[in-house]
Write a structure and sequence with these properties.
Layout (H helix, E strand, L loop, with lengths): L7 E5 L8 E4 L14 E6 L2 E7 L27 E2 L7 H13 L4 H8 L3 H5 L6 E5 L11 H11 L7 H8 L3 H9 L3 E5 L20 H16 L3 E7 L5 H14 L3 E5 L6 H12 L4 E3 L5 H12 L5 E4 L11 E7 L7 E2 L5 E2 H12 L2 E6 L4 H8 L4 E5 L10 E6 L13 H12 L3 E5 L8 E4 L16 E3 L4 E3 L6 E3 L13 E4 L3 H11 L5 E4 L7 H12 L5 E4 L12 E6 L13 H13 L10 E6 L5 H8 L2 H13 L7 E10 L2 H13 L7 E14 L2 E11 L4 H9 L9 E6 L6
Parallel strand pairs: 8-15, 8-16, 9-11, 9-12, 10-11, 12-15, 17-27, 18-25, 18-26, 24-25, 26-27
Antiparallel strand pairs: 1-2, 1-4, 3-4, 3-5, 6-7, 13-14, 19-23, 20-21, 21-22, 28-30, 28-31, 29-30
Helix pairs in contact: 1-2, 1-11, 7-8, 16-17
The protein binds adenosine-5'-diphosphate and zinc ion (ZN).
The site of adenosine-5'-diphosphate has 17 residues, from helix 8.
Length: 741
């Protein structure tokens, strides 16, 4: 790296800093080779911090920032030391810069995602010693029982045992070990480091693919061999073997001795994915998600960095791992909104995965039965390759879909299951097959109302109703941590026993199902009941081994699961996502319901999907019946084209929040007044956000819409950097928003 005359070194720290800070290189480090990406310790406000030696990358012109003010170069502090670990790879530094610029966030905040827990991660593995019998030495001391036990044991094992292990196992004391050591009979030796990440076996179990699958797999394998950036959409109906197909591309990439990153929208999905991987390759893949123990986190980070892991499956943050030799990225269920990180650094992991593939110059595969609008349009416009799988594996057919008009076939008063759905469920139960009842709402009831005065119980910190969770006897806010015990009287008019639950959540459906189907073995799946990968694994086992036959779940069951004996899916309230002013309401609902329905009849028995709805003429319902997802999306896209809504234009949401409503409104209006005037830019708002109060912060929103060829980041810089705000006011930018709350 070229250093200036004064040896000024920019160091980026993992805090919300927009820029690296300048430090001096001390005399004793002047002759050391200093690479960007190196880990250093520097002083910051009386503390010592770990940072990264930085070097800016040139980004595409749209993303380049305006020059910042000349930075302080007087009285600079010195770097304390350079840590003896490999620097972050250059492509990762470039990626961090990209993510920060594209998503309009501070460089240091993105670094913070990358090197979270870095102190622990960098700590070297503890060295472990074990005991070895010294060969050809005469037994010069008396052989007591304990001594004999030790010698016999260590000579018959195929690995070294540590003192602690021997003491625990043989019930001996450490002085016995020391005695033997002093006599020269046994000696300590370093236990060699075993890799926790065994190599996949390419030939462990190779499925024979159908013609259609083979063609797709060959195409993807060729992309891997080409070692070049390309994006391929792998679209196949649910159960068509998409996973099987991309496993083939993974195999090719392993053969090329390159690393593979697979992103899943939810860690809950990783257990079934891991099993499938193990069946195909004989070993487990490495995992990366927020629930890993710190030890495993350290081992995984270090092994990725040393190129010792070939396949890693993970959640969003896996994108920021220091891969050295990445050869393929796969984003499974690419349409999932869970890929969007909505807090802290707001970014879409699917889009950033494409950036990472581009910078790495490797192929990326986007996988879905119901691709997002952006991806589908890019595929139709020829920007992405488009592979389709049209048949279910082994002759399984797509489920038969029926609409239940709730205006005609209505449930009993206070109930939610319609007569046709009840009848179908009973039939499936009697055939010893499985049913999934789906409702995307946690808890017992979304609203609690006083029958006497009409009061609705709301969160005091958010503009949201409290949701009853009867299992835990609480009313809970789903937006913050607030909860109260279910009150006995109305907090407003003090009427006794006047509070009634309005509407259903899955706890209420479970209550109804228990009464309606007394012999069913019920399993409830929601983020309340499955809050760790272990619990998910257990739930999957219960389903696979048919210990349960009636599953009641939220969107957590909609994702890529494969349950062979599940033949009926009942959608309790198909209209749920369609209300509200969300631009993508129809698209999201369609994707979700299509996915849920796709769980039915994936194996030897045909499946049925029954959809309860009041909106039986809605285009979403028609599409679900006809099954022509792409057609719906193309029509929907066309409607957006004239006005340059995405995917034909760009959006950025600006969220102003403050401690008082007045401060929020003032700043939002100031933004409105100073908004850029340009015929190609449309500003909507300011207006109170639908969640106008969230965790005690008042919120206003603006929406910026431009043509696609306009660099929205540059406009935002020019606009927002000129605004002065009070200390309690925060302006957040959400590029390509998918939530409008
Ligand atoms: P998708 O990901 O498209 O929903 P999957 O890859 O999960 O589909 O395939 C559905 C089921 O069919 C899985 O159990 C999978 O193992 C099986 N399957 C698909 N293709 C094959 C094949 N060629 N050989 C054996 N099993 C297959
Ligand atoms: Zn709240």
């Amino acid at each position: 790296m070229t250093l200036s005359k004064q040896n000024i070194i920019p160091v980026l720290l993992p805090y919300p800093f927009k820029e690296p800070l300048n430090y001096l290189l001390p005399e004793d480090l002047k002759f050391q080779k200093i690479l960007p990406g190196s880990f250093v310790i520097v002083p910051l406000n009386q503390r010592k911090e770990i940072g990264i030696i930085w070097q800016h990358h040139s980004l595409p012109s749209g993303l380049t920032k305006l020059p910042t003010k000349q930075k302080r170069i007087k009285n600079l502090k010195e770097i304390i030391s350079i840590l003896p670990v490999s620097p972050l790879p250059p492509v990762l530094l470039e990626f961090i810069e990209w993510v920060a610029q594209y998503n309009f966030t501070e460089l240091g905040s993105v670094l913070a995602i990358t090197i979270r827990n870095i102190k622990i991660i960098l700590k070297p593995e503890k060295k472990q010693f074990g005991w070895l019998k010294v060969p050809n030495v005469s037994l010069s001391i008396k052989m007591t029982k304990a001594r004999k036990k030790i010698l016999e044991f260590i000579q018959t094992q195929d690995r070294l045992y540590s003192s602690k292990e021997l003491i625990d196992r043989l019930h001996i004391t450490s002085s016995t070990l020391i005695g033997l050591e002093k006599a020269g009979i046994i000696a300590k030796q370093l236990i060699p480091h075993v890799s926790f990440f065994p190599k996949p076996d390419l030939y462990f179990h190779q499925p024979s693919l159908s013609d259609e699958q083979q063609k797709a797999a060959d195409f993807l394998s060729q992309k891997v061999i080409d070692h070049q950036f390309s994006v391929t959409l792998l679209q196949g109906i649910t159960g068509s073997g998409k996973t099987e197909v991309y496993m083939q591309a993974i195999a090719t990439c392993i053969e090329q001795k390159k690393q593979i990153l697979v992103l899943l929208p939810e860690i809950a999905l990783s257990s079934q994915w891991t099993d499938r991987f193990a069946k195909r390759f004989g070993v487990n893949p490495a995992l990366w998600h927020s629930d890993l123990t710190l030890k495993l986190r350290r081992q995984t980070w270090q092994a990725i960095s040393k190129n010792q892991i070939s396949v890693l499956v993970g959640a969003r943050s896996a994108l920021f791992l220091p891969f050295r030799n990445l050869g393929l990225i796969i984003v499974d269920e690419e349409h999932e909104t869970a890929f969007k990180q909505e807090e802290g650094v707001i970014y879409n992991a699917r889009d950033m995965a494409i950036v990472r593939a581009k910078l790495t110059n490797c192929p990326i595969i986007l996988v879905s039965a119901t691709p997002s609008m952006e991806t589908l349009i890019n595929a139709y416009q020829g920007k992405y390759h488009h592979l389709t799988l049209t048949k279910r594996h082994a002759g399984a057919v797509m489920p038969h879909t029926e609409l239940i008009d709730m205006k005609i076939s209505y449930p009993q008063r206070g109930h939610y299951l319609s007569p046709p759905l009840i009848k179908a469920t009973q039939q499936v139960l009697s055939k010893n097959e499985q049913i999934l009842l789906f409702l995307n709402r946690r808890g017992y009831a979304p609203l609690t109302l006083c029958r006497a005065c009409g009061y609705r119980l709301e969160c005091p910190h958010c503009s949201a109703w409290l949701v009853e969770h009867r299992n835990t006897h609480k009313l809970v806010c789903h937006h913050c941590d607030y909860f109260i015990p279910i009150p006995k009287e109305c907090p407003h008019c003090n009427a006794k026993d006047s509070l009634v639950p309005i509407g259903p959540g899955i706890e209420r459906i479970t209550e109804e199902a228990k009464i309606t189907f007394p012999n069913a073995r019920i399993l409830v799946m929601s983020s309340d009941t499955l809050n760790s990968p272990k619990m998910t694994t257990e739930a999957i086992r219960q389903i696979m081994e048919k210990e349960v036959n009636l599953i009641i779940g939220t969107q957590i069951v909609a994702k890529g699961w494969h349950f062979p004996d599940l033949t009926l899916v009942g959608i309790i309230d198909a209209d749920l996502g369609l209300t509200g002013a969300d631009l993508r309401a129809a698209e999201k609902t369609l994707q979700l319901l299509h996915q849920v329905g796709g769980r039915a009849g994936r194996s030897h028995f045909p499946g049925t999907v029954m959809i309860q709805s009041y909106l039986t003429n809605h285009p979403v319902m028609n599409t679900l019946i006809r099954g022509d997802f792409n057609q719906f999306m193309l029509e929907e896209a066309q409607e957006r084209q004239n006005q340059f809504w995405p995917p034909y234009g760009r959006l950025a949401a600006i969220i102003v929040s403050a401690d008082t409503n007045q401060d929020a409104i003032e700043t939002a209006h100031l933004l409105g007044q100073t908004a850029p005037q340009d015929p190609n830019i449309v500003i909507l708002g300011p207006a109170p956000a639908p969640l106008s109060l969230l965790r005690n912060r008042y919120r206003q929103r603006l929406l910026l819409r431009t043509r696609k060829n306009i660099a929205i980041q540059l406009i935002l810089h020019q606009w927002l950097d000129s605004i002065k705000t009070k200390k309690n006011v925060k302006i957040e930018v959400d590029i390509d928003p998918i939530s409008f709350l």
